[in-house]
Automatic annotation (TrEMBL):
It is found in: Cell membrane. It is a multi-pass membrane protein. Keywords: Cell membrane, Membrane, Transmembrane, Transmembrane helix. The keyword Cell membrane applies. It comes from Candidatus Iainarchaeum sp. The keyword Metal-binding does not apply. This is Oligosaccharide flippase family protein. InterPro entries: Poly_Biosynth_Transport (IPR050833). It comes from the Archaea. The chain crosses the membrane at residues 12-34, 40-69, 90-115, 127-145, 157-180, 186-205, 226-244, 250-272, 311-336, 342-360, 372-392, 398-420, 440-459, 465-485. GO terms for cellular component: plasma membrane.
Length: 504
């Protein structure tokens, strides 16, 4: 089990480097982009990118299915079956890319009029949709190869590709906007950059898996059925996730104004950063759970859930609490005081994370127990959409945030958690003791001290705000390492630092 934990730690660490770098770039670029393309222009940019994001759903869950299936067949050394699955996914993605292009062209031509958008931005929004549609034809097939790297549990390489892509995209963004171009040229050059970077997936997949063959001759109904028997459910889960996390901008664009999307987006960024950190910390679990499931190691799956959830919350709780306490000064000094007027949006959205912060999703996905996940996700997303539309009228942006957060707060602990514990045969007492008690006590202590510090001396600039956050983290981890961990946990964390980099 120790080697398994070390593998998860290594994969999570490499994911962390890439994600943190991407987050830092987003933090730096957001005020720069708003300054150069304006509040309304940035709102239009975010809205159109959200629309294109919905077409990522036509992935149909194939990506997650690939990770699971590649991990299982690789564990059994069934290389020919791996090639069949990869080839089938590759050419299926090629067809999906054509469908995505057709869909984006249709929206650009027929449906943009439903949004409350200044007339001068309509043609720009249309052109962006055309650009993304064309590049989708070429970029979608390469998604199959990203699934190969993840299924082989080489998250160091997916992290490297993510790092390169994020860095080059940021450089392109700065260069394009400094040259005086607008959102159309920005999307064009970023799309080309990301498409070229995705070719690295092919290079590394071939190097790691020399037996890799992608051929129409390997496409057959059997692997297609295997992929879609799992991926259809994952598609529906992705759809519900899209409704939960991405429809806010659509609701604001229809019922309020496109300009207000920018104010919401700035505050939403803290939640999106939190979401990325959350998924970063959980990313390595699906193939690991699949591997244990393929070997019939149920005890290992139980231990994986408890241990990974425990360490997740040791990191995640203080991160969320620091963002909540410092949300207003962070936004004010980062983007501007006018955006900080809506800081309650950030705090409301962040609150929901305390009710869904465990490893249940990737564990259940890895062992194929996703039917109830789908039911819960549908309940969550539909409630989210209805509440957001209902509350946007009387409460504006705050209402949209409440509509997003309330379903997680209400349904997470009352419906989803009992199912998880029953499936994994874990008592609530053991769950709460391992995953929540110490995390709540020590992160709560940290947050209380941070709140008092802010009341005594409110941070006067972004540097002071950063110092407050860093000091809070340092205090928290000092307390945790001193008195918050058992001896075996402390020794395990220190032993993780001795891992060795895998060879390509």
């Amino acid at each position: 089990m120790a080697s398994l934990k070390r593998l998860i730690f290594r994969n999570t660490l490499f994911n962390s480097f890439s994600f943190i770098w991407s987050i830092l770039l987003n933090i730096l670029l957001l005020p720069f982009m708003i300054e150069h393309i304006g509040i309304v222009g940035f709102g239009v940019y975010v809205l159109v990118i959200s629309i294109t994001g919905y077409f990522a759903l036509l992935d149909l869950g194939i990506g997650v299915s690939l990770v699971k299936l590649i991990a299982e067949h690789n564990a059994k050394k069934q290389f020919e079956k791996m090639n069949e699955i990869i080839s089938t996914a590759f050419f299926t993605y090629a067809i999906i890319g054509l469908i995505v292009a057709a869909g984006l062209f249709s929206i650009a031509t027929l449906f943009l009029g439903v949004f409350n958008m200044p007339q001068e931005f309509y043609s720009q929004a249309q052109t962006i949709l055309y650009i993304v549609g064309i590049t989708s034809i070429f970029s979608f097939p390469l998604l199959a190869l990203n699934g190969v790297l993840s299924g082989l549990q080489r998250y160091d390489l997916t992290a490297l590709i993510g790092f390169i892509t994020a860095t080059l995209s940021a450089i392109v963004t700065v260069a394009v906007l400094l040259a005086g171009f607008g959102i159309v040229e920005l999307v064009l050059f970023i799309s080309i950059t990301q498409m070229l970077c995705s070719l690295l997936n092919l290079f590394f997949a071939k190097k790691l898996f020399p037996f890799l063959r992608i051929s129409p001759a390997l496409v057959s109904k059997k692997p297609l059925k295997t992929i879609f028997s799992f991926s259809l459910l994952m598609f529906l889960l992705s759809l519900t996730g899209m409704i939960t996390f991405e429809t806010d901008r659509i609701v604001i664009g229809i019922f309020l104004t496109v300009g207000l999307i920018t104010f919401y987006e700035v505050n939403l960024k803290l939640n999106l950063i939190t979401r990325r950190v959350f998924h970063m910390l959980r990313a390595a679990i699906i193939p690991t759970a699949s591997d244990l499931n393929a070997k019939g190691d149920f005890k290992g799956i139980q231990r994986l859930y408890l241990d990974s959830s425990k360490y997740l919350n040791f990191l995640f709780f203080p991160f969320v609490l620091i963002l909540m306490v410092l949300a207003k000064p962070i936004i004010a000094y980062w983007v501007g005081a006018e955006f900080a007027e809506y800081y309650l949006v950030a705090e409301i959205l962040l609150t929901a994370w305390f009710f869904v912060s465990d490893m249940s999703d990737p564990i259940l996905t890895g062992i194929g127990k996703i039917h109830f996940m789908l039911f819960f996700a549908l309940l969550h997303s539909i409630s989210n959409l209805i509440l957001s539309i209902w509350l946007v009228g009387p409460f504006g942006l705050i209402g949209v945030a409440l509509g997003t957060a309330l379903p997680a707060v209400v349904f997470g602990p009352t419906i989803f958690l009992p199912y998880v514990l029953k499936t994994l045969k874990i008592s609530f007492r053991e769950f709460f003791r391992e995953i929540y008690v110490r995390q709540i006590i020590f992160s709560g202590l940290m947050a209380t001290i941070l709140l008092l510090a802010v009341q005594i001396h409110y941070p006067q600039n972004i540097i002071e705000t950063g110092i407050y956050g860093a000091a809070a983290f340092a205090f928290y981890f000092w307390v945790i390492l001193s008195v918050g961990l058992r001896k075996d946990e402390r020794e395990f964390i220190l032993s993780l630092l001795a891992f060795k980099q895998a060879k390509i």
